TrEMBL record:
Keyword Hydrolase attributed: yes
Limits of the Glycosyl hydrolase family 32 C-terminal domain: 341-479
Record protein name field: Sucrose-6-phosphate hydrolase
Organism, scientific name: Mammaliicoccus fleurettii
Enzyme class: hydrolase
């Protein structure tokens, strides 16, 4: 679909109710609508924004272009939740309706100030020559739940030495000060992040760049997030312009992290190397927050920019990932689905047995929306194949090579695939033998947690409607497997 600039910058209020209802109807007919993921009711969803637990309620927002599956004029769409498992639709929270954010209410975060929920975000403005201008804005929640923007930006200009690519504030409070970290591009076109500080959230002063070893690492860093976890500091960001390297960084843009020790006074960050957060095809721009028990939870965008998706022509695209709890083990982030998701389980089925080179169709694994836990009890196979969401024509394959410990996700026969993605596989080498796969399958996605959170493959799939089967086989030798499956609702 080719959209003119004018069409892309149409507001929701520019179209009639009849026209919008037509779009909604079309979206609702899609056979790829998810059932336990946050997805746009129409149009395009991208980054999760402003995720927070505040005064007993979880808030989650996302970037939204209402009118179609393109990156047009962005809004913030709002959900609340008591448990991170079921969500209440709160509608639009922020619209591009001021001179400081006329071309998009871009990404940002939420924080508490004097008991009230505040949002800090980037206002995107284009001038007549279509030159970009970025402002940093704040909005505060009112008694009636709506959000009121401050009269003017809290940061109006880009700091000296940088381009207008300056966005995605993540705010936190430390002692009596507020800090915000932003993604930014230096004038020499390398990516970085800068930190501002404030005592009253109205006046912000630049502290400077975070000092990492990554001085020449891509041309822009988007969606930074800096937090403490298990006595360490973690810096998550989404760099653009990183080349693929030994099965890593194969998507168009990356999301990853540094673990180490950060000093807020000197801005020095001593760290290990940059590690990719997810091994799948569709993961970007994650954001973290603390849940009501003080656990660090991550939610990402299950999608990437500049790639076409099978639902585009239906007038919608993308969803968010399920929430994952983060911990640090052996200097790496471990990601596990949050415990609350267990409440989505409906009926439990189990089975166990040997699989060998004759493909075994193990019952009862039919379905589209489920959680399937596969424990590898005894493995003498050279290579194991797990075929997920199988029909006559489609199959998504997970391949484990026992000798190399390489785990591969193969979307070659998954169904409709994006032309913009050139390889059909993603591979990673595990630190230890494959012991467990925990697969969350929704209508059009898979989130595969490996070895209790050692790594995750997050991917969209667009199979045909009969793709409900599951099979296991090996190249040679046999494997003893135990299956536990829950339907999810
Ligand atoms: C990341 C991003 C952010 C920006 C937002 C706009 O996907 O490009 O940097 O704020 O999306 O929708």
């Amino acid at each position: 679909v080719n959209w003119t600039r004018e069409e892309q910058y149409k507001k929701l209020s520019d179209i009639s109710e009849v026209e919008y209802n037509k779009l909604l109807e079309q979206v609702n007919q899609s056979k790829w609508r998810q059932i336990f993921h946050i997805q746009p009711k129409s149009g395009l969803l991208n980054d999760p924004n402003g995720v927070i637990y505040h005064n007993g309620t979880y808030h989650i927002f996302h970037q939204w272009f209402p009118l179609g599956a393109v990156h047009g004029l962005k809004y913030w769409y709002h959900y609340t939740s008591k448990n991170l498992m079921s969500f209440k639709d709160e509608g639009v929270a922020l619209s591009p309706d001021t001179e400081f954010d006329s071309h998009g209410v871009y990404s940002g975060s939420a924080f508490d100030y004097e008991g009230k929920l505040h949002l800090m975000y980037t206002g995107n403005v284009r001038d007549n020559e279509w030159n970009r201008k970025s402002t940093q804005m704040i909005a505060v929640q009112q008694e009636d739940g709506s959000f009121k923007k401050f009269d003017k930006p809290v940061i109006h200009d880009v700091p000296k030495g940088y381009t207008e690519h300056f966005r995605d504030p993540k705010v936190w409070k430390e002692k009596d000060k507020y800090y915000a970290i932003f993604g930014i591009q230096r004038e020499n076109e390398t990516g970085s992040a800068v930190i501002y500080e404030s005592v009253n959230i109205k006046d912000w002063t630049l502290k400077g760049e975070i000092h990492t070893k990554l001085q020449d690492f891509g041309y822009m860093w988007e969606c930074p997030d800096l937090f403490k976890l298990d006595e360490k500091d973690v810096f998550i960001f989404s760099p653009q312009g990183i080349e693929p390297q030994n099965n890593q960084f194969e998507n168009i843009y990356q999301s990853g992290y540094l673990i180490g020790d950060f000093n807020i006074d000197t801005l020095e960050f001593e760290h290990h190397h940059f590690i990719e957060l997810d091994q799948g095809f569709d993961f970007y721009a994650p954001q973290t927050f603390l849940d009501k028990n003080g656990k660090r939870i991550l939610i990402g965008w299950m999608g990437l920019p500049e790639i076409d998706y099978a639902t585009d022509e239906e007038g919608w695209a993308h969803c968010l990932t399920i929430p994952r709890e983060l911990t640090i083990e052996n200097n790496k982030l471990v990601q596990r689905p949050i415990k609350a998701l267990e409440k989505l389980r409906t009926n439990k089925e189990t089975a166990e047995g040997y699989a060998n080179k004759h493909s075994v169709k193990l019952h009862p694994y039919e379905g589209k929306q489920y959680e399937l836990i596969i424990d590898i009890i005894e493995n003498e196979a050279t290579e194991i194949y797990f075929d997920v969401r199988v029909s006559k024509k489609c199959s998504t394959q997970i391949i484990y090579n026992t000798r190399t410990k390489q785990l591969t996700l193969d979307r070659f026969e998954s169904g409709v695939v994006s032309e913009a993605v050139d390889k059909a596989t993603r591979t990673t080498t595990l630190n230890k033998d494959l012991e467990q796969l925990r697969i969350y399958s929704d209508t059009s996605s898979l989130e595969i947690f490996v070895n209790d959170g050692e790594c995750v493959f997050t991917t969209r799939i667009f199979p045909d409607e009969n793709a409900v089967n599951f099979r296991t086989s090996t190249e040679s030798g046999q494997v003893y497997l135990k299956f536990t499956k829950y339907n999810l609702q």
